[in-house]
Amino acid sequence: MHIETLTPADPAWQAQALCAQTGADFFFPEPGSSVREAKRICGMCEMRPACLEYALANDERFGVWGGLSEKERLSLRRATR
């Protein structure tokens, strides 16, 4: 049995992510709006690790990626330097 590993460089993970089936509104809310629903969806998504790696590697500054908000990703980047 062959198990395919998806990496951030392979865009296939994006098509399989729950956000692709949900719509961007939850993941790119208006400033000051809650990201709770986006994080709930991310928490159920098997693609979350690849998504977070992609966001960090590509310096995504807006929206919820891999279950983390902009501020949380910034804090993570600062902590890993």
Please describe the topology of this protein.
Elements: H1 12-16, H2 19-22, H3 36-43, H4 48-57, H5 70-79
Average pLDDT number: 87
Instruction: Note poorly predicted spans.
Output: none
- Count of helical segments? 5
- Oligomer state equals single chain
> Percentage of helical residues?
40-55%
Percent of residues in β-strands:
under 5%
Please tally the β strands and state the result: 0
Task: Return Rg in Å.
Answer: 13 Å
Organism: Streptomyces carpinensis
Function: Acts as a transcriptional regulator. Probably redox-responsive. The apo- but not holo-form probably binds DNA.
Pfam family, one: Whib
Subcellular location: Cytoplasm
Features:
81 residues; 5 helices; globular
